[in-house]
Amino acid sequence: MAPITHLECTKCGARIGAGEPATVCPKDGGVLVVRYDLAELKRTFAAASLFGRTPTMWRYAEVMPEAEPVSLGEGFTPMLPSREHPNVYIKEEGLNPTGSFKARGMSAAVTMAKSYGLKKLAAPSAGNAGSALAAYAAAAGIQAHIFMPKDVPLANRVECESYGAKVTLVDGLISDCARMVAERKEAEGWFDVSTLKEPFRVEGKKTMGYEVAEQLGWRMPQGIVYPTGGGVGLIGMWKAFEEMQELGWIGSERPQMVAVQSSGCAPISKAWDEGKPTTEFWANAETIAAGLRVPKPHGDYLILDILRKSGGVALAVTDDEIMDALRHWARVEGIFAAPEGAATLAGYRKLRASGFFSPDDTVVLFNTGSGLKYLDVIEAAKSGVRLRLTSRHIAGIIGPY
Ligand SMILES: Cc1ncc(COP(=O)(O)O)c(C=O)c1O
Ligand SMILES: [Zn+2]
User: Which of 368, 370, 377, 378 maximizes ligand 1 atoms within 8 Å of its Cβ, making it the mutation to test the pocket?
Assistant: First the structure.
């Protein structure tokens, strides 16, 4: 594994040592990213050295922080060729521990928390991040304090409690949960592992970028379609591509990065349409895709910059389009997706219809989680009613689907 040279602020470029647990840039609150000596690594770390390594995200050990991994077997998920669309691949993240890609980020964050000797972690979560934190904290023997909207999918709450986490259900959105963690963390002695407010969740999520490249034989796809809430995966994959170029594994080519959101909470898509560099808070966020219910992503400036640099796009799809895509994937591909993952198929359909992607383009759609974590939401939709996740209600049945 690689010694970290420093942490770097994505706003002002300030360099901070990694010897102590860090949160955000002390000067401007910017997101901190982890830097290694890639020029040095390039001399010894070749793509060929991956051959025969463990099929987890820790196979990329040289570009992961130097610590004993807290691992439950996360990562190196299948890249399934679509049966319906030639040249489309579905990256099946639902097979991760705790049933979602959040396992990657939390494996890395908890690994570092353990190596720093932290004893109490806290996080606001739309659902799956909480489940993942609870599992990895249990594996590491660390306390987890999780704040989730009270209408979170049932599985998330049951999982967190089963893993022994302390769960607080909040009458509000993830933004309200984040505020509560921020208000209480000092007095309680919690270390906050909120999205993009500690540097290592990105390190876990970036492994999706390494895997896309490795599983496609070190060729970049034309596009990557990613269901975007906080945007950690987009930011992480982009970092992976930059690192791989510095390692000499790929050239300057990049996929067009596509952020799909739900029309019930689409701050990135709105900012993109308006040509703005940051988002405005999305009022009354409401969607069946719980992980996309992030009214103001902390890393909005990074996400929008990546979309622009990559020649990508942001777009929103409706909950009805998401549910249609979810059922379709299950029947046609044999993949039971999370609503967030199904949103990528809904987005891809639109981008094919508009000509943004052609049938010849190799495109990777990220199914970020398993539908098994949303049985309550999906069942309600199936029986002709829609279980909606709103900011004001406990999940309730509100009208015909
Ligand atoms: C299944 C699923 N997909 C996508 C997302 C959004 O992820 P990100 O914060 O990386 O944008 C989440 C976040 O909770 C999620 O649980
Ligand atoms: Zn800064």
Answer: 368
**How many A from CA of 376 to the centre of ligand 1?**
18
- Ligand closest to 12 (CA) is 2
> For ligand 1, is residue 156 a contact (CB within 6 Å)?
no
- For 124-181, what is each residue's pLDDT tens digit? 998 999 999 999 999 999 999 999 999 999 999 999 999 999 999 999 989 999 999 9
What pTM does this model have?
Answer: 0.94
CA of 316 to the centre of ligand 1 (A): 15
What is the spatial distance between Cα 71 and Cα 56, in angstroms, rounded to a whole number? 9
Ligand 1 lined by 229 (C-beta under 6 Å): yes
Expressed in angstroms and rounded, the spacing between residue 386 Cα and the centre of ligand 1 is 21
Beta bridge partners of 92: 367
SS (H, E, C) the chain: CECEEEEEECCCCCEECCCCCCCCCCCCCCCEEEEECHHHHHCCCCHHHHCCCCCCHHHHHHHCECCCCCCCCCCCCCEEECCCCCCEEEEEHHHCHHHECHHHHHHHHHHHHHHHCCCEEEEECCCHHHHHHHHHHHHHCCEEEEEEECCCCHHHHHHHHHCCCEEEEECCCHHHHHHHHHHHHHHHCCEECCCCCCCHHHHHHCHHHHHHHHHCCCCCCCEEEEECCCCHHHHHHHHHHHHHHHCCCCCCCCCEEEEEEECCECHHHHHHHCCCCCCCCCCCCECCCHHHCCCCCCCHHHHHHHHHHCCCEEEEECHHHHHHHHHHHHHHHCCCECHHHHHHHHHHHHHHHCCCCCCCCCEEEEECEEHHHHHHHHHHHHCCEEEECECCCCCEEEEEC
pLDDT in tens, 195-227: 999 999 999 999 999 999 999 999 999 999 999
Beta bridge mates, 191: 121
| Residue among 340, 366, 367, 378 to mutate when testing ligand 1 (max atoms within 8 A of CB) | 340
The reply to whether ligand 1 has any atom less than 6 angstroms from the CB of 338 is yes
